[in-house]
Amino acid sequence: MNKPITLTTEQQLLLVRMPCRLRGTYITWLLGFDPYFLMSRETYYRHAKELAKNYGIEIRKKSPYYLPPQTD
Q1: How far is the C-alpha of 17 from the C-alpha of 12, rounded, in Å?
Q2: In whole angstroms, what is the distance from residue 23 CA to residue 39 CA?
Q3: What pTM, to 2 d.p., does this model score?
Q4: Helices 20-30/41-55 angle, 10° precision
Q5: Which residues fall within 8 angstroms of residue 2, CB to CB, at 6 or more apart?
Q6: In b/e form, how buried is each residue of 39-58, taking b as 16+ CB within 10 angstroms?
Q7: Could you give the CA distance from residue 46 to residue 65 in angstroms, rounded to a whole number?
Q8: Which residue of 7, 14, 19, 65 shows the fewest CB atoms closer than 10 Å?
């Protein structure tokens, strides 16, 4: 079972200040999913550019919370 993710106070404030259109992408990435496969290519690159430019978040890299799939 995966461990729950706890957002730091800094991450919580960042999330609140972030535009609504980027919050889902950021949270999806933070949870370890690749948002590239969950939205159109154009939207992904637009969000990636805005998150990198305005917030210093590079979603094209793996999330710090990424957990590789477990094999039993």
Answers
A1: 9
A2: 14
A3: 0.80
A4: 90
A5: 67
A6: eeeeebeebbebbeeeeebe
A7: 23
A8: 19
Structure tokens at 72: 């039993």
Question: Among 2, 20, 18, 9, which Cα is nearest to 63's?
Answer: 2
CA distance 48 to 59: 6
Distance from CA of residue 10 to its chain's centroid? 15
Listed residue (3, 60, 58, 52) closest to 31, CA to CA: 3
What would the pLDDT profile of 25-46 be if each residue is shown by its tens digit? 999 998 888 899 999 999 999 9
Listed by start position, the domains of the chain span 13-55
Q: What is the pLDDT of residues 3-23, one digit of tens each?
A: 677 888 998 999 999 999 999
Rounded distance between C-alpha atoms, residue 9 and residue 14, angstroms? 9
